[in-house]
Amino acid sequence: MKGFFAELSHPREIIRNFVPGWFGITMGTGITGIVIANFPFPFRGMVVIGTIYFIANICMFCLFTMLFVARLVMFPETIFPLLKSHQLLAFGAIPMGLTTLTNYIILVVRPTHSWGLELAYVLWWIEFVFTLVSIFGVPYCMMRYQKHSAETMSGLWLFSLVPAVVTGASGCYLSRYLEHEGHRAPMILTISGITLGCGISLALPVIGIYFYRLVVHDFVSKDLIVSSFLPVGPLGQGTYGVIEMGWAFKELIGDKYAPGFGDSVFACCVVAAYCLWGYGLYYMFFAFVSLIVRLREGIPYNLGWWGLTFPIGVFTAGTMNIAVATDSRFFRGITSLFVCILVINWFVAAISTLGRIYTGSVFKAPCLQQPAKKADPEMQAIP
After folding, report:
1. 50: Cα separation from own chain's centroid
2. Which of 115, 159, 301, 366 suits 83 as a labelling partner, its CA being 20 to 30 A distant?
3. What is the distance between the alpha carbons of residues 318 and 335, in angstroms, rounded to a whole number?
4. Predicted local confidence at residue 366, as pLDDT
5. Helix or strand or coil: residue 298?
6. Which domains does the chain have, with CATH numbers?
7. Packing angle of the helix pair 23-37, 329-359 (nearest 10 deg)
8. Contact status, residue 292 vs residue 370, Cβ threshold 8 Å
9. CB 191 within 8 A of CB 250
10. Among 139-153, 302-316, 335-349, 369-383, which stretch is predicted with the lowest mean pLDDT?
């Protein structure tokens, strides 16, 4: 058995090879804790379990932030290679990982601690700023510095756009608990609604291009096969978000503009949620099919495995919101099934990652290694 950090020439290589993809762990861990703490069939200890995930997520997010900042400061020569690499697509994991912390604070901390709401309010603005960087800055680098083609396209294209959906949904959720008589709640709802709509509008055409890519060029390679679940992310989070927006309009606006206005908006949002949920279920089916097909070839480990956890998690959260909005035991049952699948996925990814952290083999940024073949510019998976 290989020793501790046996594959590292020096511990500083951890910092030098640290990439944004590591924040995908905080995304998966955060959403797992949230759905457990909000399980549709309550059981003793579910909030305690969710809180354990939450505390672990805080520690990891702080650690990853320090490591990423240290890389930028200590190894500035690695910045431009990162901008030219497809590793940059995972930058969106930073605001999405932070969003899971914000949402858990609203869900569990706010009811018992008065400062919880103010902390969530501050964190939301921070994630909103990072979201703007992700949806504008990363696509700019994709256009200017990177090489892409339809044949090598994967669900990773969505990574820079999904934060708009996630942050928008989180803001709609937050606005429901801010003081209704002040200006903050309507302001957050307005910004969040626009951001949510922008994110869904950006994601849908990319998902359409992805469908074209599957039909013309077969499933993605085994290195990137887990990215097949990424289209499920914006659709699942969109399902969750539009229902949160409907509830926010119902509670904040109500009959202010017309009799029954809030109820009408909520009803329209539920209908839209059904559409997004069904669309997401379609891509989840083909994601599992493609995963089964590539299993025969052997799927190499990379940090992209965490890309399977978050899409299933947000799809679970969206299913849960439909269950609550429609008081449906059918959707509660489906939610319970998805939670079980999510927890299994989390443990598989966590165990695989810990083993490679021990040897140090996971600390190898592809953007600093030998470049991929010119014909296959996306064959190196985001770690």
Report:
1. 18
2. 301
3. 9
4. 77
5. coil
6. 114-364 (1.50.10)
7. 150
8. no
9. no
10. 369-383
85 with 367: CB under 8 angstroms? yes
- Distance of alpha carbon 108 from its chain centroid, rounded? 20
Helices (H) and strands (E) in the chain, counts: 13, 0
Distance CA 261, CA 249 (A): 8
Kindly state the DSSP code that residue 18 receives in the 8-state scheme: -
Whose structure tokens read 């626009």? 194
Residues 99, 241: contact at Cβ < 8 Å? Answer: no
* Whole-number Cα distances in Å, 288 to 35, 201, 212, 226: 21, 25, 18, 9
pLDDT tens readout for residues 15-52: 999 999 999 999 999 999 999 999 999 999 999 999 99
What is the biggest distance separating any 2 CA atoms in the chain, rounded to whole angstroms? 70
- Evaluate the CA torsion angle 290, 292, 293, 299 in order and state its sign: positive
Structure tokens at 27: 């995304």
**For residue 165, what are its two tokens?**
């959906």
Structure tokens at 166: 């996630």
Distances (CA, A) of 215 to 166, 263, 270, 288, 374: 28, 41, 31, 16, 23
Q: How far is CA 193 from CA 47, 114, 303, 312, in A?
A: 29, 26, 32, 23
The number of residues in the chain equals 383
- 341's CB contacts (< 8 A; 6+ apart) are 312
State how far the Cα of 293 lies from the Cα of 295, in Å rounded to an integer.
6
Contact 176, 251 (CB under 8 A): yes
Contacts of 144 (CB under 8 A, 6+ apart): none
Residue given tokens 């993605």 in the structure block:
220
Q: What local confidence, expressed as pLDDT, does residue 307 receive?
A: 80
